[in-house]
Request: fold
Amino acid sequence: MESQCSPSSHFPPRLIDLIYHPYRLHPCSSTSPITIKNLAVSKLTSDPEVQQQFGEVTKSFGLDGGGHAEGRRHDIKSYAYERKGKGYTRVKFGVESARGRGVVWAEIAHDNPSQFHYLQLTLPNGKTMSIEDERPPELSRPERQHRVSQRLLTLQHTYYQKDVVDAVAR
Reply:
């Protein structure tokens, strides 16, 4: 199978691409949506748990935006953003096997594009499999509240809790 990023696939940019799509990543970069999709599909096909639950991935494709699908190409939905000075790209696309269709969500960091930040597959029955998840665990609600209150105290803000205000008002 020929790579979609071979030198023969480089065409001069169209004017519309230069005007309306300046935010898109180069189609052959390691952080482009097609490259991330290809890497994700190869991870899915090599994962034994995916083989058992979903079957062999036979097709991958971009998802319909909910409109009319006649004659339209469905691009891979992607979103590039920065958090704490690091660049990330998220993608969402569909996969198909003999057991049905699934949806894949994946995210990579731009400084390490060969490692997924997370890679998840939603099965036809609605269950979600986490193939890779390198995200830090989320804090519990009391831990988040404690951090917020500590931050407010260091900024010397005054804050009130509803029950305390009601007790003082009596």
Q: What stands out?
A: The first strand starts at residue 59 and ends at 61. Residues 7-136 form a domain with the Nuclear Transport Factor 2; Chain: A, fold (CATH 3.10.450.320). Residues 33-46 form the longest helix (14 residues).
